[in-house]
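Onboarding guide, step 5: your first structure request.
Type a short instruction followed by the sequence, for example:

Predict the 3D structure of this protein.
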Amino acid sequence: MTGKENLQDQIVRKDRSSALVVLPVYNEEKALRQSVKTLTSFLSDYDRYNWKIVIADNNSQDSTGEIGRELEKENPIVQYLHIPRKGRGIALRTAWEQTDCDFVSYMDIDLSTGLDALIRAVDLLNKGADIVVGNRLDKTSNVKRCLKREFVSRSYNLVIKTALGTHFQDAHCGFKTGRREVVQKILPYIEDNEWFFDTEFLFYGEKLGHGIVEIPVTWVEDQDTKAKIFKDAYDDLRGLYRLRFHNNLDKPGEKT
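The system replies with structure tokens like these:
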């Protein structure tokens, strides 16, 4: 490639919208390298966006950090970000606050959500949607998970709609995207920095008047998940009580 062709390629790339994919991780030394390899290989076929992947390590105690730094050196679109505090929410908050990409998203490191959903979501954002998320409860979604988790998920989402008067269907799907300016407007309202972060994100997004588009997904349960059903359910119920009676809708910008 000549210098002129290289310059033209750089100009074209600057004209493209940019999209951030955050992979929140905690002690994921077994899954990290293969998942990042799978994701980067997939994204290489969709060059209409400038992609950036951030490995948001929320204080792992294994070799996740070492692997993340190696991946950062190996691929220019990969960045390793260490957050000295445990919690998926704080990992997402930190990465989303710092970015200047046009669109932001996150996927669980097990890539349970089919990667085609990422392209469909970013395309919708590029057409003007505010927030696009996965909906495993859609009748056209292809979901494989145990009956117990299916029951808990459907029950939880019913409780959310009843208690908070919301309209979104699937709060816990580990795949969410949004326009950067919309997401960064919502973040100051959110208090939780762990698993309930997702529910708060959708709650405040809807209550602040942003449209939430839910898309069907292919989703396969990770048998090695770190989620703890009963503890997470207890934390979720506490969070729902707080959102119902002590939310921050009248306190814009106070929470960080």
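Each response can be followed by summary notes, for example: The CA atoms of residues 139 and 216 lie 8 Å apart.
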